[in-house]
Amino acid sequence: MKTQSVSKLMIAGLALLLAGCGSQQASQVKDSSSSNSSSLLVAKSNEKVSTDNLSPQQAVSLIATYAGNKYGDDWATMAKKAQKQGLQVNLYPTSKYKLSDNGQGVAYDVTAGGKSTGLVYTINKDNTVNIYQNVKAGKLSHKLATISKQDMASYVNRQGQAKLVGDLAKNAQVIDKQSGSQSSSTSSSESTGHQYGRQEAVTVPAEMQGTWYSSDYDSNSKITFSKNAILGEDGQQYHLYKQDPNFLAGDTPSTSVQNATRYWSSARFVDVHGLHFLNVRGWCQTAGDGSSYAIHTETVNGKQVKVLVVAEGAGYWTSGVYYQNPQLAKQQADKKFDDLHYMEDDD
Fold it and tell me: From residue 84, how far is each of 78, 79, 87, 167, 194 by CA, in Å?
């Protein structure tokens, strides 16, 4: 009898042990599946993303990168497609959907190339973000998470995915489709395939590309040009585009349009005073003449030196001369050249 009892206890114990192992294996499979769904979207890099002064394009790129890596599934699929098709977020009133948290009343529908796949976020008053997927009109949707942009950036940096944020932001578009909020001035740009009057990128002349240092050395001012952008003294990159001439012909662009084009600049070439100027203006700038830049050659210390001439105003008056060498710029402090056109020359 004792032998049978012991045998029964051993069998029962073995059954419990096997059941426990099966449960543990199931748990491991579940965890592995979760891990697979959040695999990295691109190869790791050492780049870092900061949430300081994010443009609307950078913000949606950060959210798409975070959600794609964190949650996988449709977010990951969209983020991968957006690398080829372009990232676009359409703004709708939250009344279009049934969201568990409406934030401040605007639903941001994130897409690759404009086709919606139910990926939406809203933003709260404290600037935290509510993230959703599988959102459908008329059907209640529950959020995946509420998270701050700072926490998203930290996660993206830890995963080595910051480069994807920058890549997506380069061609990202923010399109306001809320009823009555689209500026009539954007309608002429719809036929061009670009939003808000944006046409092709403007290429900075090769000899102008690089960093230039001001002769007003007390200001420690410098200007950097890349192929299609200018880096401002605030450290922000402003992309240069040709602008549809009808874009500013109508009403003043709405606040949402101004925010969406915050880091775009209108650029064109103008020949005046014997110089070939690149004229740069704010995208929604309706007054003023912007700043103009031209490459010129001057004799400095008996040598021919290439300089950057900066001009302002309707008269394209020289406001500064920049040099490629900071030491030379300091030596030439506030020097004026006879062949350049200054405002006092018109007196």
Answer: 10, 9, 9, 10, 16
CA angle 56, 206, 196 (to 5 degrees): 30
User: Nearest CA to 291 among 319, 272, 263?
Assistant: 319
318 token code pair = 């020289």
DSSP 164-225: HHHHHHHT-EEEE-STTTS-GGGGGGGGGTSSTTEEEEPPPPGGG-EEEEES-GGGT-EEEE
pTM greater than the 0.70 cutoff: no
Tell me phi and psi for residue 190, to 5 degrees.
-60, -40
Q: What is the dihedral of CA 69, 72, 74, 75, to 10 degrees?
A: -20
* DSSP code of residue 345: G
Virtual CA dihedral for 91, 97, 98, 101, nearest 10 degrees? 0
- Only one residue has tokens 């009109």, namely 137
SS3 state at 22? helix
pLDDT tens-digit readout, 285-327 = 988 899 999 999 999 988 999 999 999 999 999 999 999 998 8
User: Rounded to whole angstroms, how far apart are CA atoms 347 and 337?
Assistant: 17
